[in-house]
Amino acid sequence: MICAVGPRWHRPRSKMALGLAGLRRHPVLLAGPGYAEVLERLERFFEVEADETAAALDLAALAARLRGKSALIAVRTSGIGAALLAQLPHLRAVCKMLPDHADIDLAACTRAGVMVTNTPDLGNDGQAHRQMALIAADNLIAAFGFGRIGGHPVNLVNLELRCLLGCCI
């Protein structure tokens, strides 16, 4: 959406401008460290609910927390499978802040059209975890076709969904 303000054209960038423009922001659950720069990056495009303890919830509680959400960005994602996905018709992306995805039923996510991403292993210290969280945020932004990244996430695991946005057609 482009707005005219005086003699210049610009794109609305702030949350207020997005709200005033009538654009709905996708709700996202951040179940991991809520680093300020990660939240700042995500809040440009999404309505973010941050709760570091949400990844440790049992499946019923996690399903309740994800109800109505478009995405999950988390460190741990144990139990993401067909049974959970059947309860979450709005879920479009699961972005891990770690290099593995063994705790996700990738086939069930692919069938449901849910993009799964992970991050490269950058180490085990605080700065590496912060950087991996930023990469996961970029993966989420790309999964929805937003920002300068657009297209598909660089770290997409279920490659069958890489053209879900029509970027490769």
Would you kindly provide a written description of the structure presented here, covering whatever features stand out?
With 169 residues, this protein is of the alpha/beta class. The protein has one domain: Rossmann fold, CATH 3.40.50. It contains 6 helices and 7 strands, in the order ββαβαβαβαβαβα. It has helices at residues 15-20, 36-43, 59-66, 82-86, 106-112, 126-143, and strands spanning 3-5, 8-10, 26-31, 46-50, 71-74, 93-96, 115-117. A 5-stranded parallel beta sheet has the order 4-3-5-6-7, sandwiched between helices. Strands 1-2 form a two-stranded antiparallel ribbon. A hairpin with a 2-residue loop joins β1 and β2. α2 (36-43) packs parallel to α6 (126-143). The longest helix is centred in the C-terminal third of the chain and has 18 residues, at 126-143. The chain is globular. The relative contact order is 0.14.
Summarize the structure.
This protein has 169 residues and is of the alpha/beta class. It has helices at 15-20, 36-43, 59-66, 82-86, 106-112, 126-143; strands at 3-5, 8-10, 26-31, 46-50, 71-74, 93-96, 115-117. It has six helices and seven strands.
